[in-house]
Amino acid sequence: MLRCIYCGLCEEVCPEEAIVMSKEYELVFTSREEAIFGKDKLLVPASQLKDRLEFLRKMR
């Protein structure tokens, strides 16, 4: 997450809705290791992102 600038371009070009931005906008890390997101941190239930997925479907 240290390299991400939260621009949303990856979300816009992903054809399968595999990349979706969440409502979390304030991420704080005390070490570089905490900023490395594995699959366990990246997988979020679709129910938590329902409003964002609906927005993306309208925009396509």
Describe this structure as you would to a colleague.
By secondary structure, the chain is mainly alpha-helical. 32% of the residues lie in helices and 0% in strands. The radius of gyration is 13 Å and the shape is globular.
The rounded Rg comes to: 13 Å
Q: How is the main sheet built?
A: none
Strand content: under 5%
Helix-strand pattern: HHH
Global outline:
globular
Q: Quote the distance from N terminus to C terminus.
A: 26 Å
How does the helix and strand content classify structurally? mainly alpha
Q: Average pLDDT, to the nearest integer?
A: 86
User: How many helices in DSSP terms?
Assistant: 3
Unreliable stretches, pLDDT < 50, 5 or more residues? none
Report the strand count: 0
Portion in helices:
25-40%
